[in-house]
TrEMBL record:
GO terms for cellular component: endoplasmic reticulum membrane. This is SEL1L adaptor subunit of ERAD E3 ubiquitin ligase. Belongs to the sel-1 family. One of its GO terms (biological process) is ERAD pathway. The lineage of its organism: Eukaryota, Metazoa, Chordata, Craniata, Vertebrata. Gene3D superfamilies: Tetratricopeptide repeat domain. Pfam families: Sel1.
Amino acid sequence: HQEGSEKRVSLFLCCQPGFHLQSRRKSDCKKYFGYSDVSLAALRISLELYEKLLKVAVKGHQKAMEKVAYAMLFGDYMNQNITKAKEMFEKLAIEGSPKAQMALGFLYAAGLGVNSSQAKALVYYTFSALGGNLVAHMILGYRYWGGVGVPQSCESALTHYRLVDVSLTGGSAVQRIRLLDEVENPGSASGMLEEDLIQYYQFLAEKGDVQAQVGLGQLHLHGGRGVEQNHQRAYDYFTQAANAGNTNAMAFLGKVSEMWLIYFFSVFFSPSSSLNVFPYKRIRFSLCSHYDYVFRRHSGLVGNYELALKYFQKAAEQGWVDGQLQLGTMYYNGIGVKRDYKQALKFFNLASQSGHILAFYNLAQMHATGTGVMRSCHTAVELFKNVCERGRWSERLMTAYSSFKEGEMDAALIQYLLLAEQGYEVAQSNVAFVLDQSAKIFSENETYPRALLHWTRAAAQGYTVARIKLGDYHFYGYGTDVDYETAVIHYRLASEQQHSAQAMFNLGYMHEKGLGIKQDIHLAKRFYDMAAEASPDAQVPVFLALCKLGLIYTLQYLQDLNVSASC
């Protein structure tokens, strides 16, 4: 990891105290690493903090050792050193650290610094989960759900996923970026916004640029692209643009104000109950002054569930997701209205369509217990898995992506590997992609089999490209023996279940050549035609393939005529 180490040392020099006195060095750092002044200052603080943690860890402090060991494992603010990280984890595991036990389970599962052993991984994961480690519970939930190293058991998966309810505390909105899609579609806007770009828009907004104010308002309203959701900042930006006469900003301002009103009624009218898990502590904004005035003047409103129901119904009718959620909660608990589980299910489903995490959580609880709906372990597990994957640990997806963009392939790979263990399909496909590219952490004879494993897991979760990759691996013999029959099976699954144009084209080619399937020019043409219908991008290659197929058919026809004439 010579190149990565040199880059990290250079970055450390950029962040030394006094670096601001050397304009040439600062400009080089900003150009080479893409960091702004604020980012470099924050990074310098983090580096200094980890230096102090290392000194404390050497003296045997458990929490410091955990922090340093994970930093060495992922290459966070320290040179990546898996061997030293493993040694520290082993010492911590002896002392009973659940975090260290989980890490050792990961190392044995991935074969990092040790010989791969799924049995040892399972033991460490189990002890870590018994110690209350939520990531270990999530890993075990995924393993029992997918039958990874253990017998498949929906009920066991449900047990583990239900214990990860702390994921409701959430975190920053995380963009799930597929590396393969980004490489093949470089113009797509799937990635995170660069911090310098955000600061540029902030500069424009401060100078009175209305479009920048509206854009930043929308970004903070919804979150994503590496920006944390912040309704107060969204309100401020929309207010600035609205004061300048922008009608779009006025509309968004109305939306934010109505959202606040819904939160107001949620806080003061919604009863606390086992199902009503509304995250009061996540309200990071202040209510509008006129809402406070209404509450002070009409203190009798507290506990007026009929009025709350009225406002929630109006909000739900207009499609506001929080109104739908709270209306579902009131129907579930029978507060201000007759208890009606079917209505509760209806409104939770509506809220879930907008991606509301609490709606998914409530639906998962109802399917798990069979409340108002036929009990379905499979549906409950899928819903709980969705909720768990929005926990704070999902922010690791962003740090892994940053490592990848900075060229630190091994650091990105290890982070994606841990997320893949937790069941993130995006991480599984990204692991396979990085292994396909230039990861050096494994030997060459291990790379393709490991990539094949992760393509398999991603395909099992419904990722079409992964299914096609499995066909390609068996077709070319990457990480496995050449097996045309198995390749046909994967292409057919991608074609029938996900209507993939690429899979249809590949099936046409295999019918044309008779590879793994009976040669049939007519079926080949049918699959080529289906590929052209499924995707406009396939029309040119299909046209060329059909020209070739027509030539082959003509030659075969002439050959048959010659044979008939000679007879």
